[in-house]
TrEMBL record:
Keywords: Signal
InterPro entries: DUF2141 (IPR018673)
Protein name as it appears in the record: DUF2141 domain-containing protein
Pfam families per UniProt: DUF2141
Residues annotated as signal peptide: 1-21
């Protein structure tokens, strides 16, 4: 039973990332909907990498209602080979101060989607903000949300 739960979790996570990645084809999208809050720098440090082939796909969400939906707050892709320094990829976003959840995956074969096995378990590395690793079911906004303060934040995303 425990193994079945783990398989279902992996399937749900893969489907969530598939929906997130396939609903946006632009390199970066989104509009700032929080105004009068001031802006701050959110620096993402993404690690580890088994290969420098492919790209990193980053989705940033600013509410539970848009979490893993086509209505991402930000979407960005980076070429790993061009962006990796000392084993990690770093990128910075200027965002309104507030609450966010970040989902990342490494499209390690650069085919434009998160690959899964025949039952939906991800075959490419992925990670969430706040160190969130879902135990059962898809990732949750409340478990992966982070607060971006006025002084900025460095968030490390560990790919699993």
């Amino acid at each position: 039973m425990k193994r079945l739960k783990s398989l279902l979790l992996c399937c749900a996570t893969a489907v969530s990332f598939q929906v997130s990645a396939q609903t946006s084809t632009q390199a970066e999208t989104g509009t700032d909907i929080k105004d009068n809050a001031g802006t701050a720098s959110l620096k993402l440090e993404i690690t580890p990498f088994e290969t420098t082939v492919g790209r990193i796909v980053i989705s940033i969400f600013n509410s539970p209602d848009t979490f893993f939906s086509p209505d991402k707050f930000r979407y960005h892709e980076l070429n790993v080979a061009e962006s990796i320094v000392n084993g990690k990829v770093s990128t910075t976003f200027e965002l309104p101060v507030g609450e966010y959840a970040v989902a990342v995956y490494h499209d390690s074969n650069d085919n434009g989607k998160m690959d899964t096995n025949f039952i939906g378990i991800p075959e490419e590395p992925s990670g969430m903000s706040n160190g969130h690793v879902p135990k059962f079911g898809p990732p949750r906004y409340d478990a992966s949300k982070i607060q971006l303060p006025a002084e900025g934040l460095v968030e490390v995303i560990h790919l699993n």
